[in-house]
Amino acid sequence: MGLGKTLQAIAVVSCVRESWPVLVLAPSALRLHWASMIQQWMNIPSSEILVVLSQCSGSNKGGFKIVPSNTKKSIHLDGVFNIVSYDTVPKLQDLLMASTFKVVIADESHFLKNAQAKRTSASLPLLQKAQYVILLSGTPALSRPIELFKQLEALHPTVYKNVHEYGNRYCKGGIFGVYQGASNHEELHSLIKATVMIRRLKKDVLSELPQKRRQQVFLNLGEKEMRQVNALFRELEVIKGKGKSAQSEEEANSLKFAEKSLISKIYTASAEAKIPAVLDYLGTMVEANCKFLIFAHHQSMIDSIHEYLLKKKVGCIRIDGSTPSALRQDLVTDFQEKEIIKAAVLSIRAGGVGLTLTAASTVIFAELSWTPGDLIQAEDRVHRIGQVSSVNVCYLLANDTVDDIIWDVVQSKLDNLGQMLDGQEKSLEVSTNQSHSSPSKQKTLDSFIKRCNNSPQDPSKKHCRD
């Protein structure tokens, strides 16, 4: 996450030229970024850098060889460096397996965390077939140890060969589903460090990087905005009560599914409730006239923020899941180089990976993500190589909403991931000086439901193997 993993991978690959050509697997948004980095650091013609794109629109200032993935004609991966997105791998699986790629780089390898995903099942044989494999990720597991397994299997299948053995040892304790928990952290950390992982932290690599300061800003939501959220929490209380008295396993599972579905609705309702207060806070940022990033998850929140900034005539860029990957780098360049562009409106998932936005030093989260890795990745669009100012990260939270639950879930997951990957506990540490005072926050879902029930009744490495 801004520590130079791309450059390190290019350096490693330059040492095994006899095994070229090279295959690079990357998220869609990072394909042209990889091409640019290879062109910058390797002494090879840009025409020998092949990029497979589904759409050929957008700029190709580097002169790379662009191959459309949606053509009916046969595709030839004949570049010295061949860059393919994870989503394209299943479509090109036969062609890729027939090719002789002895060197494979998989960037943001946590994209392979889901064993059932087509991109995972299609990518794994490519990785296991290669002589040299480099997996790159600042957050190889985003939430829990099971997300590591396919990456570990790709690198060292003789050690990590049985998902059930791995799951029973390292993934106990989950509530929603098998192998969703975490156990034996220290042992797993020692094992992966001894076999496949090189883990470098910012404090080790970038000793002069300015500090990152997190702050919780508590929003005041009106009774009208909170009505739907409170109603959903009371409904959730009823379902949890039925779950405790379930007469059969089938009934208990059905109620657990209903509980999970209702929490998702509360997540959405909380976003809707926060919109007016988030926009009010944004007014202070607009008046400050400084560059900032603002992240959100729900489309309604992203749309409201973007429309607000346009209404205020604030120069801004927007990157979400609908932004073509070929245009994202141009938007990033505009933000980095144009003083008139003050804000970047980003979705946590689409805008939180592979972008360098160090022209800003303020990051705002209008919403939380259930996945701690997504939050850390998003923060580090600013806190990375090239940053010269202290970074301020503001989490806009609202009491008595889903934020109370997610914050504690994220902290718990980070604790597990920190012990597993770094051998030490980790958390989203925040400054003790808050912009707004906060009443005591509940630590469990049950205690929140209890409080709602008393209220007025208003109608979610890198390693080189040889």
Could you characterize the architecture of this molecule?
The strands form 2 sheets. Strands 3-2-4-1-5-6-13 form a 7-stranded mixed β-sheet, sandwiched between helices. A 6-stranded parallel β-sheet has the order 7-12-11-8-10-9, sandwiched between helices. Strand 5 (103-107), helix 4 (118-129) and strand 6 (132-136) form a beta-alpha-beta unit. It has 15 helices and 13 strands. The chain has helices spanning 5-14, 31-41, 93-98, 118-129, 149-155, 163-170, 185-195, 202-205, 223-244, 249-288, 299-311, 325-337, 372-379, 402-422, 445-453; strands spanning 22-26, 49-53, 65-68, 81-85, 103-107, 132-136, 212-218, 292-296, 315-319, 341-347, 362-365, 391-397, 464-465. Mean pLDDT is 83; it is low at 432-466. GO terms for molecular function: ATP binding; DNA endonuclease activity; helicase activity; hydrolase activity. InterPro entries: Helicase_ATP-bd, Helicase_C-like, P-loop_NTPase, SNF2-like_sf, SNF2/RAD54-like_C, SNF2_N. Pfam families: Helicase_C (PF00271), SNF2-rel_dom (PF00176).
